[in-house]
Amino acid sequence: MNHAQAATQFIKDEARTDWHDKALWFVRYKRDIQTKKVPEWEQLRELASQIKANVLSELDSYLIQFEENALKNGVHVHWAKDAHEHNDIILNILKAKGVRKMVKSKSMLTEECHLNPYLIQNGIDVIDTDLGERIIQLRDETPSHIVLPAIHLKKEDVGETFYKYLGSEKGASDPKYLTEVARGHLREQFLTADAALTGVNFAVAETGGFVVCTNEGNADLGAHLAPIHIASMGMEKLIPRQSDLGVFLRLLARNATGQPITTYSSHFLKPNNGQEMHIVIVDNGRSEQLGREDFRKSLYCIRCGACMNTCPVYRRSGGHSYSYTVPGPIGSILSPGIDLKKHSSMPFASTLCGSCTDVCPVKIDIHHQLYKWRQIIAKEGDFPLSKKIMMKVMGFMLSHPKFYRFAGKMARTALPIMPRFMLYNNLNAWGKEREIPQAPKQSFREWYLKNRE
Amino acid sequence: MSSKSYILERVKQNKPMLSVLPVVPMFERKDDVSLISLFKENLEFVGGRLIELNSKEELNGQISEIYPDLKIIASTLNVEAANLDLNSIIDPHALKGIDLTIIQGDFGVAENGAIWIPANTISHRVLPFITQHLVIILDKTQLVCNMHQAYQKLDIHKADGFGVFLSGPSKTADIEQSLVIGAHGSRSLVVFLV
Asked: Which residues of A touch B180 (CB under 8 A)?
């Protein structure tokens, strides 16, 4: 199913679509309030962008430096070239220690690698502990947003899920009550887990440490209680200096949810006494993306999700309409590099309005990249036939002014007198769900020639 | 070839031309805003509460007034109400029943209400997370304006391997974007500024 088809399903429930749209726009609004409180906001974006540019240009040496320092800190470092190797490394760590239950905080990388099903198949009980992640895990769904994984659900849906799996009261849907139920359930999991997995928001080359940001405290409850802490890290998460965290922590939460900082910004450097700490550095297509000049800036991303909250298409089509783990504008420039055919409709799920680029905290030129992917997809020929023909016709018409003027005249004459069935049918996507605008009597050119020449 | 050499080789081949690492300024504020009032404003915004004390002696009275019913109280400081000996606990799982924890914060950050808590000051890393309620004592001279100054001030190598910027009680908005205070970590946070 392509994006447009999936979005058609999503918008069938009009009230829910409206709610989704407004809820995300409110997050954007809260972001704006916080960002305006920082006078140097634009300078911070520029600095963040420059730091990330430097990281990519020296990524190999930063990776080596990071590993050296992490090893000195007593941390085990693993390298995974793809998702399969990442999953295997983790399974082996868990198996070696006889782990049966692992708690996990939010990590888009493990979603990308499909770690959960792999571990579960191999007999490990994996419990997602971020509230939103736990909700969708119980429902056997995937996150529809990278920061707000359950934003596609209403509280009644969550109430039903908790009633079914966690024994909450039937029909209860008060968020406070439901959160309390989850708190009780997940405390039990934290206290009985043999291992904890977290993501990595930032890894610092000069110290070998890494930072994990959460609001719920779930990453810390997992990591400090379990005897094994595994951190999965995309290799682009590196930053050179600890002081660079000053830039990124000022940007991340303000831009993501409109908070001045996340509740917990946890700095892990060494394992706890008697604990094992592992870091898995993952490539999985990133080194290839690094080689694509037009698209390598997508690796600057710090996963704040602001491009989704602001995107008029994302807000009205929902994260599940996108074929890749990371939805929305940023997902649409990451995914074609991973599987061009599978994700060929994603770069088209945009109006190219540029709002994503405007809110990006690290200044990724998202809408330019969307446009560039479109050109590649068009060249590769992965277009539906009707679009292919239309593009040819339009291309011819727009490069032949006389024909263009003739066609315009024809349309202005024909549109008002054409019977409805000829205009509003499957061939004309512009006539779906809306009325075609009334054709003007004269073209702009005609008006100009008459009035200005 | 190992995955490490494979990855590093590919990165070397594919990376762009050298881009210079920028110098990050301290962004000192030019206005004479009070750090205490800015800290208070942000702490309250993130769901915490600030109480200014004239002296440390007032602490015991405040604790028994605000938390008359809490049973198990742990502290790394000399607090009358504390009734759990943290030094006797080896396995952090044994901290699960704590109702209230009182700890010292290293310093606070005015722009976001965050307080730096290095592991060497809290006896167990999980302590400020596993407790039901949290109290942090902060020296009012130990406030910095922003995160750049915060990183200039902190020494991660003295933190005993872990440290956290903690800003407010734990929270979530994962159910319909409704803010709920008290997700998995502490349900409340009171900061006493002395």
From this structure: 175-176, 179
Q: Regarding beta strands B188-193 and B133-138, do their DSSP bridges make them parallel or antiparallel, or are they unpaired?
A: parallel
Chain B residues closer than 8 Å to A245 by CB: 147, 151
Q: Measure A7 CA to nearest chain B CA, in Å.
A: 20
In tens, the pLDDT along A273-286 reads 999 999 999 999 99
Q: What backbone torsions phi and psi does residue B105 show, to the nearest 5 degrees?
A: -90, 150
**Phi then psi dihedrals of residue A103, to 5 deg:** -95, 150
What 3-state DSSP class applies to A373? helix
**Distance from C-alpha of A343 to C-alpha of A339, rounded to nearest angstrom:** 6
Q: Which residue has the tokens 């990519």?
A: A56
Residue for token digits 């997902």? A331
CB B164 within 8 A of CB B42: no
CATH topology of domain A38-284: Rossmann fold (3.40.50)
CA A328, CA A317: separation in Å to the nearest integer?
9
Residue (of A318, A213, A339) closest to A267 by Cα position? A213
Residue A218 sits at the vertex; the CA angle it makes with A214 and A224, to the nearest 5 degrees, is 110
Q: Which tokens in the block code for residue A337?
A: 């590099």
Portion 129-148 of A in contact with B at CB < 8 A: 129-132, 135, 148
Q: Please give the single-letter amino acid code of residue A228.
A: I
CB atoms near residue A45 (< 10 Å): 19
Mutate one of A215, A233, A237, A275 to test the B interface: name it (highest B CB count within 10 A). Answer: A215
Residue labelled with tokens 């890894």: A203
User: If you measure CA to CA, which chain A residue comes closest to B120?
Assistant: A272
Tell me the mean pLDDT in the region B106-113.
98
Question: Given this model, what pLDDT does residue A56 score?
Answer: 98
How many Cβ atoms from other residues are within 10 Å of residue A329's Cβ? 31
With contacts defined as CB-CB under 8 Å, which chain A residues touch B20? 50, 54
For helices A401-417 and A385-398, the axis angle rounded to 10 degrees is 120
- Give the residue range(s) of CATH 3.40.50.10420 domains in chain A: 38-284
Name the residue among A213, A243, A276 with its Cα closest to residue B151. A243
- B7, A281: Cβ pair inside 8 Å? yes
Q: Which of A40, A180, A224 sits opposite B92 (nearest CB)?
A: A224
Cβ–Cβ below 8 Å for B165 and A224: no
Instruction: Name the architecture of domain B33-193.
Output: 3-Layer(aba) Sandwich (3.40)
Distance between CA atoms of residues B150 and B162, nearest Å: 16
pLDDT tens column, B5-52: 999 999 999 999 999 999 999 999 888 889 999 999 999 999 999 999
The per-residue pLDDT of chain B, averaged, comes to: 97
Length of chain B equals 194
Element (H, E) at A89: helix A83-96
**Of the candidates B3, B174, B178, which has its C-beta nearest A132's C-beta?**
B174
* DSSP-assigned letter for residue B13: H
- Cβ separation B15–A129 shorter than 8 A: no
Structural domain boundaries in chain B = 33-193
